[in-house]
Design goal:
acyltransferase, GNAT family N-acetyltransferase, GNAT_dom, 175 residues, 7 helices, transferase, 29% strand, acyltransferase activity, Aminopeptidase, alpha+beta
Length: 175
């Protein structure tokens, strides 16, 4: 099996991430976000990790793992305010995509997410993980369901109709 590694994204990845932003499969999964790579790749806030997934040394995808409460873009703020009793207050949110079209359908997304979950749940006190796939992204939602994520319902983030998904640390540890 090919070796999958996650490494920190750097400004040296700028051209790669810009190219991936234009890839049809990325546009389909994330049509309205501006990642401001030129700025964000230079920042290292302690509430976020931006990671490049490599298979046998070849970059194939991207992930961001963030604390949704501490994130300075307040992306999750309205959802968290509407769900004040949800354990998401001590969680992480993950964005993930495969940037290379020829790397799709080979299980890399599953392996990337599993590696991220191992990393997230190694942090003491993290209750779970939030995801926000587009409601129309049935392929991604099926992957997340196979990994144990529970659908908490619809939510509109900006211009995007999404589903909010949750995986508790307890459910992950029982896999």
């Amino acid at each position: 099996m090919a070796t999958l590694q996650l490494r920190e994204a750097t400004i040296d990845d700028l051209a790669l991430l810009r190219r991936w932003d234009e890839a049809p499969q990325v546009v389909d999964a994330d049509p309205n976000d501006d990642w401001a790579w030129e700025t964000e790749l230079l920042r290292r806030p302690d509430w976020r990790s931006q990671l490049i997934a490599e298979v046998d040394g070849r970059p194939i995808g991207f992930m961001e793992i963030a604390d949704p409460v501490r994130a300075d873009d307040a992306y999750w703020a309205d959802w968290l305010a509407a769900h004040p009793d949800h354990p998401a207050r001590v969680s992480r949110a993950i964005d993930i995509w495969i940037g290379e079209a020829d790397a799709l359908g080979q299980g890399h997304g599953t392996r990337m997410l599993e590696a991220a979950l191992v990393r997230v749940f190694a942090v003491p006190g993290v209750a779970g993980v939030l995801l926000d796939p587009l409601a129309s992204n049935m392929r991604a939602r099926a992957l997340y369901a196979r990994l144990g994520f529970v659908d908490l319902g619809p939510w509109r983030f900006g211009d995007d109709d999404c589903r909010v998904l949750w995986l508790s640390g307890a459910d992950w540890s029982q896999r």
